[in-house]
Amino acid sequence: MPRKDDLMEAKEAQLSEQKQQPPFITSDHGVCFENDTDSLKAGVRGPVQIEDFHLREKITHFDHERIPERVVHARGSSARGYFELKESLSDVTQAAFLTDKSVRTPILVRYSQVLAGRNGPDMTRDIRGFAIRFYTSEGNYDLVGNNIPVFPIQDAMKFPDLIHSARPEPDTEMPSAGVTNHDNFWDFISLTPESMHAVMWMLSDRCIPRSLRMIQGFGVHTFVLLNAKGERSFVKFHLRPSTLGVHGICFDEALQVNGVDPDFHRRDLFDAIARGDFPEFDFGVQVVEESRENSFDFDLLDATKIIPEELVPVRWVGKLVLNKHVDPFGENEQVAFCPANLVPGIDTSNDPLLQGRLFSYLDTQINRFGTVNFTRLPVNCPVAPVVNNHRDGFMQGCIFRDKFNYSPNRGASIRVDAQRGCPTHPTPIQPGATKIRAKSEKFADHYSQAMLFFNSMTPIEQQHIIDAASFELGSCKESVVHLRMLDHFNHINRDLAVKVAAKLGCACPPALLDWTYSTQVSKHLSMLDPLGGTSAGSSVETRQVAVILADGFDAEQFLAVSQGLKSAKCVAKIVAPRKGKIESSKKTEDTAVEADSTFFTTKSVVFDGVIAIGGAPSVQTLAASGACLAFINQSFRHYKPIGAVDDALSLLLDVSSYGKVQLTGKESSSVCSDQGVVSSAHGASSEFVKVFLDALGMHRFWMRDISRIPA
Ligand code: HEM
């Protein structure tokens, strides 16, 4: 069914108004300049003249380029696109964009990290923000979510403390890269038992994602939906990559990615859109009827809890597509999301964390923009008309010609509209409630869902949590922090506590004899579980494969590999000992290839897999290059698929001897695949390419013994 694109066109028009037109440089007042490189001087060596307004205007503008970065989530990357509804939610909401399937709604998504500064590195262990603005016909709706479904605290009152503790420690301003492996953070966490469920997620590979295109999104809080009959239900919002799956990387790799490419995630998002590989996400809801509000073991208003999908399945009702780049300042930096930007049919719940957020965002944005008029910026401007009596203020961009700036008035006054307006649901207040600084009793269970998460992980995912905890706490110096955290771990899983204690070199707290460990699992939480994990069955499309070669490579093998990767929609990048044209053994112009990078300018950590092409002179050069061997060994250490053809098998000596990997025999005509290492002694056959792609689809081969691999 063709969709109506009126909203898309309206948003496009708002954004394109800002584009610069003439091909010449002018002043801010539109006057063309004859020279933009020399200041006006008294003689060629003379002093600069104060009358040079062009110079002063240019420098002044530069001097004022910076605005305060966001107080949290400062580092972010955005993309624009659209939302399409596939199944109407009119049974539970009246929101137009969730009920009218004929409309394509323009959106802007901003991904972010909570802690890194605006120019910090991408690959920190951190929660990723996943904020979506829907420019709907009824006004802007902002879903300001994260890539994990729970938050470390239950009440907004604690937010400044949480963030202060995670920031660089105030006496030294270290660590300053947006990381949490320091005493203050774990001190606060250890004194905040409610954080334990979120901590399990944060220590998992979810918080070192492979790509922003491969994360889930969650609204976190329970929100309220209202339908046209005025009926109320509760809702949790969900997003998942449509085909790419949810993937993390390995932690040792994460530590190195920032050095090789601090823009790893930003570049990945930008490049994917530039190639036309538009990220797509399914949009879903978990809806709870009003009558079930109090039927769970946990409180729906507690943001440290999920609603297990076994209890309330997700209805996948729509799709987000990101197909446009944004202006990094005009859109990514100036977009101002706010959880209070709601449309008729979606309302907030009484979640005390959410209630605090409703205050915080507008407040901080007035600080960030220095004016209340940031809503007039093209990225923030709704496509729905804005009509009210808000006037003036710094940087007011509107011209008002009407007589009245108040209502009611004696003229044709603007008025509210009960039909179109955001309804307020007449929700009963708890009978007999008094003002009180406390929470409902169900908020007090801090361990059940932390156990549920840990229990639901595969053994390798549990090991990664243990490793991450050992790294984070291993960087802490205060033994009191270790002991308190081990005590929490002991309440989640005995093995977790024992293994982290062993890595920290401290005594584990004694086993808890009168404590009940839950054995519940949910099959929707693991990334790796082959039956239902979030990466199961994901496509290899857009995966980056390093094809390594040197002068004298085998042109036919290269062609077969590059075509095979291309037809699977993977991205092949040539890595060679030097830049420029690399000649094949045929030495013909049409078989030469251009190197994308060298072993000096890139490292294996930014690729998903590697294939070494044969050809005697090429392999001779590669075998003599320690950097090339390190590239392959690192790929092995990071559990990635590796392919090698013919003489290039000789580059896998360390892998086969120290990693105990079986390679194909020199005489064998079949392709051998062992632990994700795919070898062929008979060229790059279609079978070789297929088996390699299957290995790429497995993402990582966690079963490898990497302990003796030199790299
Ligand atoms: C009381 C708790 C919280 C407070 C006080 C708070 C406050 C803030 C503030 C001040 C910003 C910067 C906004 C700006 O300058 O435009 C921000 C950004 C953000 N917050 Fe929160 N936050 C809280 C909890 C949460 C939670 C629970 C989530 C996830 C559900 C979340 C997700 C985000 C995201 C994604 C951004 C970045 C938005 C963007 O990309 O511009 N926050 N938060």
UniProtKB/TrEMBL annotation:
Q: Identify which cofactors the protein needs according to its UniProt entry.
A: heme
Return the protein name: Catalase
Q: Name one GO cellular component term.
A: cytosol
Q: Which purpose does this protein serve, as stated in its record? A: Occurs in almost all aerobically respiring organisms and serves to protect cells from the toxic effects of hydrogen peroxide.
Record-annotated active site? H73, N146
The catalysed reaction is: 2 H2O2 = O2 + 2 H2O
A single GO BP: response to oxidative stress
Where does the chain bind heme? Y361
Q: Which organism is it from?
A: Capsaspora owczarzaki (strain ATCC 30864)
Q: Which InterPro entries match?
A: Catalase, Catalase_AS, Catalase_clade2, Catalase_clade2_helical, Catalase_core, Catalase_haem_BS, Catalase_immune_responsive, Catalase_large_C
In residue numbers, the region (Disordered) covers 1-21
Q: Where is the Catalase core domain?
A: 26-415
Origin organism lineage:
Eukaryota, Filasterea, Capsaspora
Molecular function (GO) terms for this protein are: catalase activity; heme binding; metal ion binding
Keywords, comma-separated and alphabetical? Heme, Hydrogen peroxide, Iron, Metal-binding, Oxidoreductase, Peroxidase
Please indicate if the UniProt record lists Cell membrane as a keyword.
no
